[in-house]
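FORM 12-B: Structure-to-Sequence Request
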């Protein structure tokens, strides 16, 4: 019996990955930059047992759905092939953050699964090789392998598409106040969204903007320049959503002119952020492929920002039921020696 437990954090992209060069290998069309989120962890134990007759996956102690189990076991197969071990696997995984509330667990999930599986099989891989493997499970999982602030080099092929650390977690005391506005599942999965991105007439314009934006965000993190950082990440989130909003496609029942990942509450928060800044607050937003609004602020402004969100919620006619998840920069994927 060989067993290992790993922990990994979800990450929040400041320059986004949206559009794939290769959708089987998850090779993106552009570099992206992110930060690991301390409040969003996946903890995964992987056990290879010669006496076990089939692969099993448990999520929070219960049998996983067939779809989830199949995807996880397919990932373990990639690693099993490298080691020559053929025993069946037991995967036990849990998150410290609620599922389906807008923080994707695939990044932390596949990063933790990659590390726990390689460790259980006795494979000693470099951070680069772990990132390449994690990427094949879910693209953004490549960024949850290194710690702190991370850049994923898009590359062109399997071996040169991986993430590296730009700066460790203690580089900069910034905080993400994530406002989870709904638990409803999104209408268009990010896998489908990546494919539709090239339909947007603005795709080319965004692509041309990206190299300079990557330089400015990287530099702003290294120099702890919050204003440049904030302006870039907010403009970047809107540039990605401009692509989404103009990705015309045939949906299930009719033609849609684009993908709306927002709800009315998302827009309420985006407009509030502009008012808050007008009033002198240091806060900027970013968004992923969903309605959750991520509010970035200096660590000493966290209370001010959280209070502003709570006051805004109270001012709504009906309690909107928002949940706040506050994260600081977090380390990369690592092994836990004595899991509880
Ligand atoms: O890793 P995926 O396929 O779920 O794509 C993630 C895409 C965004 O969250 C919208 C942007 C990003 O870079 O994380």
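FORM 12-B RESPONSE
SEQUENCE OUT:
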């Amino acid at each position: 019996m060989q067993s290992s437990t790993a922990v990994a954090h979800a990450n929040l992209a400041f320059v986004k990955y949206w559009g794939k060069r290769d959708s089987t290998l998850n090779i993106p069309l552009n570099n992206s930059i992110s930060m690991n989120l301390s409040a969003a962890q996946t903890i995964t134990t992987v056990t290879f047992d010669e006496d076990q007759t089939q692969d099993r996956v448990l999520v929070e102690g219960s049998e996983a759905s067939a779809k989830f189990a199949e995807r996880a076991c397919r990932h373990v197969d990639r690693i099993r092939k490298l080691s020559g071990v053929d025993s069946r696997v037991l995967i036990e995984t849990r998150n410290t953050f609620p599922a389906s509330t807008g923080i994707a667990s695939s990044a932390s999930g596949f990063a933790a699964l990659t590390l726990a599986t390689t460790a259980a099989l006795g494979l000693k891989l470099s951070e680069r090789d772990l990132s390449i493997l994690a990427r094949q499970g879910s693209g953004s999982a490549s960024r949850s392998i290194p710690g702190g602030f991370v850049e994923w080099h898009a590359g062109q092929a399997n071996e040169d598409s991986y993430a590296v650390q730009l700066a460790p977690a203690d580089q900069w005391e910034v905080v993400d106040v994530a406002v989870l506005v709904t638990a409803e599942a999104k209408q268009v999965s990010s896998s489908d969204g990546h494919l539709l991105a090239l339909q947007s007439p603005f795709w080319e314009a965004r692509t041309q903007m990206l190299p300079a934006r990557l330089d400015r965000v990287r530099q702003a993190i290294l120099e702890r320049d919050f204003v440049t950082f904030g302006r870039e990440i907010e403009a970047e989130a809107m540039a990605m959503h401009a692509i989404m909003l103009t990705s015309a496609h045939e949906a299930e029942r009719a033609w849609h002119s684009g993908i709306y990942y927002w709800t009315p509450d998302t827009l309420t928060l985006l407009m509030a952020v502009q008012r808050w800044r007008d009033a002198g607050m240091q806060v900027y937003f970013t968004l992923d492929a969903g309605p959750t609004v991520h509010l970035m602020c200096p660590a000493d402004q966290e209370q001010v920002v959280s209070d502003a969100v709570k006051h805004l919620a109270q001012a709504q006619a009906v309690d909107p039921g928002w949940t706040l998840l506050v994260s600081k920069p977090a380390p990369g994927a690592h092994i836990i020696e004595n899991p509880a």
